[in-house]
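At this stage, I wrote out one protein's amino acid sequence and its backbone structure tokens, and that material follows here:
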Amino acid sequence: MMRFDTLLIANRGEIAVRIIRTAREMGLRTVAVYTTADAGAPHVALADHAVWIGEGPVGDSYLNADRILDAARQSGAGAIHPGYGFLSENAGFARAVAAAGLVFVGPDAAAIEAMGNKAEAKRLMLAAGVPCVPGYQGADQSDAALTREAEQIGYPLMVKAAAGGGGRGMRLVEGPGALSEALARARAEALGAFGSDELILERAVVEPRHVEFQVFGDAHGAVIHLGERDCSVQRRHQKVIEEAPCPVMTPELRDAMGAAAVAAARAVDYRGAGTVEFLLDASGGFYFLEMNTRLQVEHPVTEMVTGLDLVALQLQVAQGDPLPLTQDDLRIDGHAIEVRLYAEDPAAGFLPAIGPVLRWRPAAGAGLRVDAGIAQGQQIAPHYDPMLAKIIAHGPSRTVALARLARAVADTVLLGTATNSAFLADLLALPEFAEGQATTGLLARSYPEGYGAGAPDPRAVALMVAVLMQHDRDTALAAAGPIPPELLGWSSAPVLPRSLRVETGGQVFDCTAGAVPGGWRIGVADAQFEIALVHREDGLRARLGGETHDLLAHVSGDTVHMASGAQRLSLRRQRPGAPDAEALGGGRVTAPMPGLVQAVSVSEGAEVAKGQTLAVLEAMKMQHQITAPVAGRVARQHVAPGAQLAAGDVMFEIEEEESA
């Protein structure tokens, strides 16, 4: 095993920052790679050296093995850490790194290849005696063969991309009538994400827990596990909350599942960090799901309950050192829970969001950790996964960890783009999760109609209007010169309040605003609020109706972004002559985000029903169905497959059918 003193991190965002910090603590020189879109990102500033690898799109940068290897040669790196995602589970890349005389921080290409294909991995696990879900992983990929095998397996079943993970290329099929479309969608998504449209079928295990075991192997034949993580809270098969240990784990079950995980790793002579994932049913039966041959997004919860630095262990093993602990040395202390902060709008079907990072304030305090790869002033680009940060809390018990995490979600503030913070706070408060009873069906049961943010609260509207008015006044006073504070809002005659129209949460409000001594009187519809705002070092303190509210706000032009508790709100002042949303027409279909048009399902002149799929837009590594907002006729089609769209670009115009 070759030793090295310079490490290139072939990744970006929070995982690149996290790897760089540990590598530097170990005395290694670090090299970052970056795109034009990431030039101002924290991982670039933190590394000792940085190499530009492209403009922005991942195919020409973070997924381009030749550019990564060129950067390694250019910077004198002796090893490459792939992080997760991108090239981390690409056997061809691991092989190319070794052929270039460099160390790949991870398992060898043969192990990645064996476990990277779900069909091959399942065959290996069956041979190794690891319990597996009944299914089909054969070579015949015809629709006829898959339909025949599906009848043998029974419904409901899962269609999965053989070469993938992370929920991409995966569909739940409730009955035979839905199989054909599920196969077509899964193939298309798998081919786009992984370069292979091979599928497998598995019986759907109803309402299981998703429990995974962290494993580690070294070059000297040692393989151990570091306990489990419960990752049952998922949306579209992507994890939202992770915790360690699993709330229903017993010592006997941990021994059995841990032994199966170690057997899985030994079956491929595994070296480095890996995760063996299982489905755990209500009776205590468990089944192999897949093995991720890399560091996991959720590794911090394992670090917090074991006291181990998993990146440090990875680097030690990559240098050829033996693991510094045995299975008997493993100790689990307390409980840790993690949530993922995404740039997305849960109230709009979890559409990914982009925009500037106007304010960024991560939570801090006892038992808290925020892993992030963003900085104030940075722009959230459309090219990458929308995960921005991970918020992790540890405590002596699950109850304490959960209370700390709920507070940390509220205290971690990002303003400038939509995030899922309010949704996370709502999830953490669900009784089923709080009691440790969550299964993979939690979100579907809890939000059968999707997550809705609810109608804007008039009090919140009044607070944002007051913030906007105070910003206007502060800006004017800065230009006018000093005025004693006691004269602000004073007049010898009554001052008529000004009228303004604002939009927030998709609703328009007619408001009034007038200065009064010490604050503002704001009218929202028929309600009146008196609000006093005091600037503090960490934001604003508002007094409204005898109550105080701590706020963090940012005003940019006519838009106010505000954080109050876990709520992230924005309000825009409408100016005379600006178009209202209603004026755009109900049949105008625009791109909800920047993306690539993968498919178009209709053409001009076609009659469409409300909710019918018009096109498929690929953005932030996921496919999104664009549907008709109204029933009618497609009057204009503005897009074709392969078109790259910006947010707001018009895709279709539908002439709404007249109601009888």
About this structure: Confidence is low (pLDDT under 50) at residues 578-584. The chain has five domains: 6-105, 134-203, 210-446, 458-574, 585-656.
